[in-house]
Amino acid sequence: MKFSTLAFAATLLAGVAGSALAQGPAYKAPHNAFGQPDLEGVWTNATITPLTRDAKYGARNVLTKAEAEAAEAATRAQVARADAPTPADATVKDLKNADCGADGISGFNCGYNQGWKDPGTAVIDINGEKRASILVEPADGRFPPMTKDAQDRMRARMAKMRAGGWYDGPEARAPGERCLVGFGSSSGPPMLPVMYNNNYQIVQTRDEVTILVEMVHDVRHIRLNAAHGPSSVKLWMGDSVGHWEGETLVVETTNIRPETAFRGASENEKVVERFTRIGPHKILYRFTVEDPATYTRPFSGEMTLNPAKGRVYEYACHEGNYAMTGMLAGARAAEKAGRPYDIGGPGGEGN
After folding, report:
1. Domain for residue 344, yes or no?
2. Could you tell me if residue 349 is inside a domain?
3. Residue 3, in any domain of the structure
4. Which residues contact 50 (CB under 8 A, 6 or more apart)?
């Protein structure tokens, strides 16, 4: 598979829906045998639109035609540079980091080069609006401030991990690195694009909507018209229950494990997602994250799911990943030799 380089509850969501859908005549989605709007298919959320907005745009989340075209042209040029053949006699020192990101894990001399990535090449387009960010609330497209308790909680967590050692055991590593769930909230909730494997297969039955996530072969089971399970039972992707509001599938997720909570959220995190078919080849995906214990206000985002070019690929990463054994063995060898090995964090492909 070829990849390239480069992520207020009902009232607020209703407002977001109005702003996104009011620009054209309402689209009537086909319905399945159960009378539900048909969301089935293989979709992708790959995009070059970032999760948060560049401060230079302020409260403006709609790019001009020139701005959108420039962003997409720059992406195409970057991909072309990174795809260019490497001279046979080149050494690492001869090469320019055409596709090496600031994350330190992407690029020819990093964990992933151009051949592994596919984050997309286009800006999000919602009814002709080219978007500057996925986040739409707060109005500046940035995350709201964290509460003092949340900041203290995160500092305590980091101190505990440093004291125990980032490489003391698999439990210290990020869930994505352990192949338990996808990294970067690809499986969600909320489901966000990352640098590759941004494909999703949606399957519907009378009582459930299932979403197969290409990244780390995660599967979300959304039970329709059901009650949440006990709060004592935490799940990797949370407990998702859904219902139909007209043409929109509304999904509420709670009971998310702390290891996969979005951006350090607490055990009380709640995510509400809305899936609406707004065209024959487009689903509008909206989400709101609420967690008063972590953020001073809820935040919301919206983007589109577009038809993928093929089927979902098998993602063969699994919890028996031999690289984990190699990482831990390398740390033990470094300790024995008296060499430093802690590069400053759990890193990897975790949330």
Report:
1. no
2. no
3. no
4. 7, 133, 134
